[in-house]
């Protein structure tokens, strides 16, 4: 099955009682990928998971990214997220495709749909200004996927009053992303204040004994606050993606 024509063929067979609805669901979930040589693009991930495939751009050339985006676009994808790309790659891409670039997040969105409906509320809390790039990666990810997102920057534990002054914002969230380097203590503090899931993102920000974010990672993994989960070091995208999934859960939105 390929693209929209394959989808129409399945729907026609259901209409003509040639296959059952359950069989059609199975076929839709098993729609094949597009093989363009250096990449195999999952054409129907949005039906299985609700979101199209995301392109990790750091080790890909601009030409490879362009080929993947074009293949996805042919199959009807929009709001195509491209993570970890620098400005040079963006400049090479912008002449060939419709793309918006966010320099702090180092992310691009190809064929952005500005009319997407947004639901719920995610709060992103950054311990320090040095963590903002990772926060922006989480923000662009979650907001592009359809979540309302509010940012609280520079509210780390070194000046706890800054965080406590925003308790109303934190307590109105469906899910909170906490981004912190150094010793990563902010995640435990926030986790002890709220009744929603907290996703902790350790960053590589810190001095020598920070070990490139390992100290924050271990602190967050050992959080004494219940309801705190942890993603990998500097993984703002992963946190934003997961937060969006939680925010959109049916039980929460009722």
TrEMBL record:
PurE domain segment(s): 120-252
One GO molecular-function entry: hydrolase activity
Protein name, as recorded: PurE domain-containing protein
The species this protein was found in: Anaerofustis stercorihominis DSM 17244
Signal peptide start-end: none
Source species, domain of life: Bacteria
Matching Gene3D superfamilies: 3.40.50.1970
Entry-linked InterPro entries: P2CMN_synthase_LarB, PurE_dom
UniProt feature coiled coil, ranges: none
Pfam families given in the database record: AIRC
Gene Ontology biological-process entries: 'de novo' IMP biosynthetic process
């Amino acid at each position: 099955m390929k693209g929209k024509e394959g989808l129409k063929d399945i729907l026609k067979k259901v209409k003509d009682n040639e296959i059952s609805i359950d069989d059609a669901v199975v076929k839709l979930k098993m729609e094949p990928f597009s093989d363009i040589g250096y990449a195999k693009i999952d054409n129907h991930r949005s039906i299985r998971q609700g979101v199209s495939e995301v392109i990790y751009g750091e080790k890909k050339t601009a030409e490879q990214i362009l080929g993947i985006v074009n293949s996805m676009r042919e199959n009807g994808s929009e709001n195509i997220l491209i993570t970890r790309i620098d400005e040079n790659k963006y400049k090479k891409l912008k002449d060939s495709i419709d793309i918006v670039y966010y320099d702090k997040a180092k992310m691009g969105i190809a064929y952005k749909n500005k009319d997407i409906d947004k639901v719920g509320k995610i709060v992103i809390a950054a311990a320090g200004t040095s963590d903002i790039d990772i926060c922006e990666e989480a923000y662009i990810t979650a907001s592009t996927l359809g979540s309302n997102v509010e940012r609280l920057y520079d509210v780390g534990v070194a000046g706890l009053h800054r965080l406590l002054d925003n308790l109303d914002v934190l307590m109105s969230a469906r899910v909170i992303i906490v981004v912190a380097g150094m010793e990563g203590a902010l995640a435990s503090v926030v986790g002890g204040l709220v009744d929603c899931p907290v996703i902790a993102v350790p960053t590589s920000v810190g001095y020598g004994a920070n070990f490139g974010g390992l100290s924050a990672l271990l602190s967050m993994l050992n959080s004494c606050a219940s309801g705190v989960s942890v993603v990998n070091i500097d993984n703002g995208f992963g946190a934003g993606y997961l937060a969006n999934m939680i925010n959109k859960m049916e039980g929460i939105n009722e």
